């Protein structure tokens, strides 16, 4: 199939942002013979917009098991499959034993986080068939020698291809015994933090989030079951858990599209004994929330779309925050000062003023018109 026809939707579209690249094509080319030999035992991990899953289906694979960390990736795969290859057979699964049990061929896009790669490799080596072959590829500019070390710790054999089309594939065989992934642990004051591989900032509070927490008002609006305090793009759940600890009578809603973030936030909430008051959901934007249903949202927006830095990511989040906020509702947002988000916040949400600033970050509050 022609992978160039893939779309990034519902993720942002912009010049220089592509739905597939040479690494996807190289992984598929290297794995084609093994896919043909084991068409019913193919697993895809880290597929951005469906290139690997649909490429494997086009090569004859059926019943493909797929794990994509961002929910937008799952939605893009579904949309691309419906448009380009409606007969493709695949299931989207969590990063656990059901995903990789008995797998003989694994197609994997290398994540930038070594911890995320370790979690992926652990799940593969713990549950895949003894003769599994893992094709782990990426763009050379995003690869590091340490990735080889992560895979060698979990597989007895590792081969490295020559670079082609600015991409390379690491081919791992002979899995060693491994334990399932588990979160790293951290602590900040009274707060216990848990983080699975790939979750932003790991098991610590980054300086931007700390500045945001310090700027949250003493009596934010909302906090009941119908109108909870909202931690949008919640990451490891630090803001959600902090809100619940600081306001013990309030309810909190934490949302992120990343499976690793949601697993981390869930573990953080549980570690702090807050599961009865904090709801953690995986969602693309705040799609589960009704229009004008919230009075308070805290947001530390990402500025990456995959490996690419883009100034179009945050405005998409601002727009959905504005949709969810009631008139007069408050969005508190922290951002790298160099990104100059204030005009966008003014335009999309409403009147905006600065609450705090340090050498790198700015915290603003915006009132919904």
From TrEMBL:
Pfam families: MTS, RLMG_N. CDD domains: AdoMet_MTases (cd02440). It comes from the Bacteria. InterPro entries: RlmG_N, RsmC/RlmG, SAM-dependent_MTases_sf, Small_mtfrase_dom. Coiled coil: none annotated. One of its GO terms (biological process) is methylation. GO terms for molecular function: S-adenosylmethionine-dependent methyltransferase activity. Residues 5-173 form the RlmG N-terminal domain. Keywords: Methyltransferase, Transferase. Residues 191-364 form the Methyltransferase small domain. This is Methyltransferase.
